[in-house]
Amino acid sequence: MATEDDLERRRDELRRIVYGAPGEPPAAVAAELAAVERELAARQCLSIDAVEAVDRVDAVDDAEKPAASPQPPRRLSRGWSFLVAAAAILLVAVGLAVLAPVREALSPPRGLEVFDRPPTAEERDRAREVVVGAHLEARGAVVLRSLGHVVGYEFWAMLDGDQVCLLSRREFFFDWFATCTSRERFDTYGLTRWISVDDIRHGARPSRALPDDIVVASWGPRSSEVEWRVAPGS
Hints:
Keywords: Membrane, Transmembrane, Transmembrane helix. The protein is an alpha+beta fold.
């Protein structure tokens, strides 16, 4: 039979799997963690009961001794021990309930997963403006998501049926540039936008970049945001 130390070690291992690993934890692991927590809580209750029994024996012995000054209670009551056990089980349940949003915050969507999240207010308001500005003709239900800003350019991702596009525009009223491909090719190669450093405003230029260098901005199937690097110009 597993000792209390064995159960505590197993509980710590399961907590690392459930709360520390990315992705949805296996149901069996979460169930085992709850079971181990209940077993530890139950053992705590039994331990408290055993201590109370010893205290009752000591009380009988003390009654035969000369009267002494009253002593304050030293142990938890049975009712309080059950509250502790219930709190431990509730803690596990609450932890599992908040696990999904915490994991989502720590693990942002990658690649085409960005289209699965709900649109922000800005994305809803600007969707039509972006499509029209990029001179794209929708072939189906268009989904747009912002990918943020890189070196003074704003980037958006567009999904139109089987077509995936990376849209980019230099900030402050410049024209949109669109790079598109199929879903299949995106899963293999992703999408890339080459930007001349000379086309980047001075305040947003990478440090030590020369005017004829190139900023290579890319977004691929494993990208959580637009990735970029500086390459020497040809």
